[in-house]
Every structure is written in structure tokens, then in C-alpha cells.
Backbone:
């Protein structure tokens, strides 16, 4: 019994490589049994990395001339000797030899009566331009990452802001806000220079601290309730509490968290502030490309990133799952969405008539602990929106970002953008005070976003095409 040939001894058509003296005779016999169109000559050679087919199964019979063959050839005609070649006369065999010799030297195409693709349904997206496409229609992997790294390393934000507030349908205005585009200059104004502070006031010299970056800014929104006292106090003192903290600027997160708690405790001790007054607090501290968002309450910070809205804070409502669990764990209750039936927020500064004596121990259901979100600004980050709950009650974050971006592209004025948001919220019947701050990170307006037109090319499987033809024929 002849042994099975090794896989590497098979050529691309599945036939064993033979000695050169038997090639001519064997090729004639093999090509005579191929279906029509099989092995047609082509002008290109097969790719060198085309995988070899597996060796044929079963035993390999011997040909009449004594050489080994394969059982891969099939035909609709009769066979003899178990090899699968049709019975042909020597004359016909000789006539076919010349026509088949050239065909055998190239890779054969599949038979015409066999589908070349089965169960295939695909979608191909073709971009209009191929200027950014590399070999094989793919983007060069190194070019985009390298350019992004260079852009990010060279990006330096430049801060400018605008704000707008309106009382809305309420009787009193209880919102407050702060905008500091140049924090370095603001610190010099508060504490003076290092030289003058050291020579004139030894007590104030420790307050001045050099910032890690010359480009720094601070913004905040304070939505008061039960009067404007707590909101006004937080606006006047929050930034100073941050700058005076011993952890600033090396430990910015700890400094901001400590400032929130300090402001909350100061509201309890301040004799000029009504103890029933409270406020939410949302701040944004930016040092260079690092931005830290701190929130306690239901105001919201939203980043505009090339037209997409990225929420950087979470609304602290009593019905929020995490807030509800914390409130109930500390002995609080929620009635119809209100904390202890009195307050519609789960975190706030002040409100010491609710916190009571346990407030300073951090065990009150109404917490002043802020949630922090830190990120690094990139060139894709275009602007930041700070808004009280009166805006977000009637408008989604994405809607606000879309409006601001459209306005900036028209007039590049963040103050007019803030006004447009407030006016739109009033038209949507907002029933609260409205305060909006828009912070831009560049002096230029946002660039126009060009979405490439995409051509969609679809294909259908052979079976699907046959089924479709059948349906159409029956109609």
C-alpha cells in the first residue's frame, strides 16, 4: 500500500509533486478530468502566502504508469481504476495535452457551477478621500498617535468666560456665582506680592503660594435656598479657603474637599447668616491642563468636547440610588423625593436646622462632602458649562452643548452663550432661578466639524439572490 504524501509535497491544486519525467504524462491525464473553466490561465502568479490545502483523505492509488496520484478530482463522467479520470481515447487525450499544459502552470479558478461565496452579507464603508489612508486602505497607525501626542503636549488652555443670571418666575434671586479667569492675578490682588507680604504683614505672607502653572482659573455656582445668605457666604469665601489650605497646591483634591467642609462649618458658626439658609456648591479649579470639578448638590458641570456633551458631575438628588442608601444608612428618610420631607437635594452647605449637632461629625444625612472629578484638558475640549438645576430641569446636557457651540461659531462670545441658554430655559417654562457660566479654553471659536460622506456598498449571498429571484418570479 503506498504511503500518504506529506502536506508540503502537494501543490496548490492538491496534487502531489512528481518526478519531472512523469510530469507531462500525469498533467495530461489530470487536466482531462477537470471541469470546464478549471485551471484557466491567468497573467498573475498566485500569492506566495496562499495556504496549502490539507492532504487528501483515503488511500492514494497508483496510476497506470506506476506514479502516485490523488483522489481530489471529481467529474460527472464514468471513472476507472478508482482515480476519477474519465475514459478517453489516446487521440483525445493527446489533443487536450497542448491546451491544458499552460492552464496547469497557474492557479486554477473554481468551477463555474460552484458558488465562490456562501452565506455572506457585508457592508463596506468607503471614504470620499484617501489622503489619510495608508497601504491597504488603513490609516497609518503611527501618524495619528504621534500627531495627537504632539498636539496634546503643545496645547496650553487660554481661559475666558461669560455668565448670565435671571430670577425667573421666583420672587427672590438666591443664586450666586464667581468667575476668575486669571487666578494668578487674583491671588496677587488678595494677598499682594511675596515681597510686600513678607515685609509689611508677616501673618499674611504664608497665605501666598506660587501656582504650579501660570495659566490658572476658578469658577463656581452656588444655588441658594432658604435665603441668599449661604450662597453669598460661599461665593465670597470658597476660593480663599482653598488657597489657604495647607494641602494646596500639592494636594489639590484634599484642599478643595477641606474647603467645602470648612465653609459648611463656618456657616454654622457665622452669626450674620441665617442657620436655615443653605446652598449647593459647584466649582471648577483649573491649573494648567488639569481641571478639578467639585460638586455638592444638583448643579451640573458639562464639558463640550468637539460637539459632544461630557457630564463631569452627578446631580445629588435624594432619589438617586447611592444617595438614598447613604441617607437611609444615616437615619434619614425620603418623602416624595424630599430629604426628611424638607429639601430636594441630598448634599448642600449650611441648612444646619436639618443637620443639627451631628452635622459637624459628618454623620448627618445631609452631607457637605463634595464629589470630585479630575481630568486633563486636550485640544478637543472646547468649553465648559456650569449651570444650576433650573437649567437642567428643562434641558439636556447635549442640547446645551449644541446650542453653545453653535453660538460660539457665530459670535465667539461666552456671555451671549450663557444668556441664550437662560432665555431658552425660560421659554421652556423653567420654574427656578437660572444661572449659567460658560468657560472657553481657547480664544478662537470652535472649528467646523466636517463629517466625511460615506458610500455604503452592500453585497448579497448567492442563496439570498436565488431566494430573491424566486420571490420576484412568483409575484
Residues:
Amino acid at each position: 500500500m503506498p504511503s500518504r504524501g506529506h502536506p508540503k509535497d502537494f501543490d496548490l491544486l492538491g496534487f502531489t509533486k512528481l518526478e519531472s519525467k512523469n510530469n507531462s504524462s500525469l498533467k495530461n491525464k489530470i487536466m482531462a478530468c477537470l471541469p470546464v473553466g478549471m485551471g484557466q490561465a491567468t497573467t498573475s502568479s498566485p500569492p506566495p502566502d496562499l495556504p496549502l490545502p490539507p492532504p487528501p483523505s483515503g488511500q492514494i492509488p497508483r496510476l497506470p504508469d506506476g506514479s502516485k496520484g490523488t483522489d481530489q478530482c471529481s467529474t460527472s463522467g464514468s471513472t476507472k481504476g478508482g482515480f476519477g479520470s474519465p475514459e478517453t481515447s489516446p487521440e483525445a487525450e493527446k489533443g487536450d495535452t497542448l491546451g491544458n499544459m499552460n492552464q496547469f502552470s497557474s492557479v486554477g479558478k473554481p468551477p463555474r457551477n460552484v458558488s465562490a461565496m456562501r452565506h455572506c452579507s457585508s457592508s463596506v464603508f468607503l471614504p470620499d478621500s484617501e489622503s489619510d489612508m495608508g497601504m491597504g486602505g488603513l490609516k497609518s497607525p503611527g501618524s495619528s498617535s504621534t500627531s495627537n501626542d504632539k498636539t496634546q503636549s503643545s496645547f496650553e488652555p487660554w481661559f475666558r468666560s461669560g455668565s448670565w443670571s435671571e430670577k425667573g418666575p421666583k420672587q427672590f434671586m438666591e443664586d450666586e456665582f464667581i468667575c476668575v479667569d486669571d487666578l494668578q492675578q487674583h491671588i496677587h490682588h488678595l494677598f499682594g506680592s511675596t515681597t510686600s507680604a513678607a515685609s509689611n504683614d508677616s501673618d499674611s505672607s504664608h497665605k501666598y503660594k506660587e501656582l504650579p502653572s501660570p495659566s490658572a482659573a476658578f469658577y463656581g455656582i452656588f444655588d441658594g435656598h432658604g435665603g441668599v445668605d449661604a450662597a453669598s457666604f460661599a461665593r465670597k469665601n470658597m476660593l480663599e479657603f482653598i488657597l489657604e489650605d495647607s494641602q494646596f497646591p500639592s494636594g489639590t483634591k484634599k484642599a478643595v474637599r477641606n474647603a467645602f467642609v470648612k465653609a459648611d462649618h463656618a456657616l454654622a458658626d457665622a452669626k450674620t447668616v441665617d442657620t436655615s439658609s443653605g446652598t449647593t456648591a459647584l466649582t471648577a479649579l483649573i491649573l494648567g491642563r488639569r481641571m478639578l470639578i467639585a460638586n455638592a448638590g444638583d448643579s451640573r458641570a458639562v464639558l463640550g468636547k468637539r460637539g459632544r456633551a461630557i457630564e463631569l458631575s452627578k446631580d445629588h438628588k435624594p432619589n438617586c440610588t447611592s444617595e438614598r442608601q447613604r441617607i437611609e444608612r444615616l437615619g434619614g428618610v425620603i418623602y416624595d423625593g424630599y430629604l426628611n420631607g424638607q429639601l430636594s437635594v441630598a448634599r448642600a452647605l449650611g441648612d444646619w436646622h436639618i443637620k443639627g449637632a451631628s452635622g459637624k461629625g459628618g454623620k448627618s444625612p445631609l452631607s457637605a462632602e463634595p464629589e470630585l472629578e479630575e481630568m486633563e484638558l486636550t485640544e478637543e475640549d472646547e468649553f465648559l458649562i456650569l449651570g444650576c438645576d433650573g437649567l437642567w430641569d428643562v434641558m439636556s446636557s447635549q442640547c446645551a452643548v449644541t446650542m453653545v457651540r453653535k453660538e460660539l461659531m457665530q459670535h465667539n462670545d461666552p456671555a451671549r452663550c450663557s444668556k441664550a441658554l437662560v432665555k431658552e430655559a425660560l421659554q421652556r417654562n423653567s420654574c427656578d432661578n437660572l444661572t449659567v457660566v460658560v468657560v472657553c479654553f481657547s480664544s478662537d471659536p470652535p472649528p467646523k466639524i466636517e463629517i466625511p460622506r460615506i458610500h455604503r456598498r452592500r453585497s448579497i449571498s448567492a442563496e439570498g439572490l436565488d431566494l430573491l429571484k424566486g420571490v420576484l418570479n412568483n409575484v
Remarks:
- The mean pLDDT is 75.
- The chain has two domains: 1-111, 158-440.
- The chain is about 30% helix and 20% strand.
- The radius of gyration is 39 Å.
